[in-house]
């Protein structure tokens, strides 16, 4: 796998089996499960264009949007996030409100 590929959309992460790493202004960084992020964006009907991802991501430490983000081969550091189908069912129910 070449990491020089240009990631243009969230769907590219799945294609290259990559996760999403985000770097915040405060120095905090996190790895998100790109598959779950894709599902999350789909639920909210958000734009999954690579450049747009940051406006919907928030730092778990300071609440800011990340400074930059990109693909990573590392596993997600919060695997418990949206880990069960009940989580997703609850989200969909909330969005239908
Ligand atoms: Zn932060």
Describe what you observe in this structure.
The chain is α+β, with helices and mostly antiparallel strands. It has one domain. The protein is 30% helix and 14% strand. The protein is built from three helices and three strands. It has helices at residues 10-15, 34-44, 85-96; strands spanning 19-23, 29-32, 68-72. A three-stranded antiparallel beta sheet has the order 2-1-3. The chain is globular, with a radius of gyration of 13 Å. The chain binds zinc ion. Residues 24, 26, 28, 59, 61-62, 64 line the site of zinc ion.
Spans of at least 5 consecutive residues with low confidence:
none
Question: What does the main sheet amount to?
Answer: 3 strands, antiparallel
Helix fraction?
A: 25-40%
Round the mean pLDDT to the nearest integer and report it. 93
Q: What is the overall number of helices?
A: 3
Instruction: Name the beta content range.
Output: 5-15%
- Please count the beta strands (DSSP E, at least 2 residues each): 3
Distance between the termini: 42 Å
């Amino acid at each position: 796998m070449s990491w020089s590929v240009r990631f243009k959309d969230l769907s590219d992460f799945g294609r290259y089996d990559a996760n999403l790493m985000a770097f915040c202004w405060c120095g905090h960084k996190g790895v998100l499960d790109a598959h779950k992020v894709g599902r999350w964006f789909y639920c909210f009907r958000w734009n999954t264009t690579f450049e747009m991802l940051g406006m919907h991501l928030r730092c778990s430490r300071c609440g800011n949007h990340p400074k930059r983000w990109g693909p990573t081969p590392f596993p997600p550091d919060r695997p418990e996030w949206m880990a069960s189908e009940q989580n997703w069912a609850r989200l969909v129910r909330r969005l239908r409100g």
